[in-house]
Specification:
The structure is a single chain. The protein is built from 2 helices and no strands. The chain is elongated. The chain starts with 7 loop residues before the first helix and ends in a 6-residue tail after the last helix. Helix content is about 70%, strand content about 0%.
Length: about 70
């Protein structure tokens, strides 16, 4: 099986967008009432959080690979 780099920023973005979809699906199904404007701060905040996570992950990976030598 091929291995790939985990990308936690994409995971956070996906979770937030799925959560937004579930909230509005529940609203459409009549389970609860969600105002139309709730999606804007939820998606914007989630994407900002995902960007911060991706930035930190990139910095940590760069630091980890910079500390290795050719002998490792």
């Amino acid at each position: 099986m091929l291995r790939h780099e985990p990308k936690p920023g994409k995971l956070v973005a996906g979770v937030v967008l799925v959560l937004t979809g579930v909230l509005y699906a529940g609203d459409a199904g009549g389970a609860w009432e969600i105002p139309w404007f709730v999606a804007l701060p939820l998606v914007t905040g989630g994407l900002c959080l995902a960007g911060a996570v991706a930035f930190l992950t990139g910095r940590l990976r760069r630091r980890r690979t910079a500390g290795r030598t050719a002998a490792d």
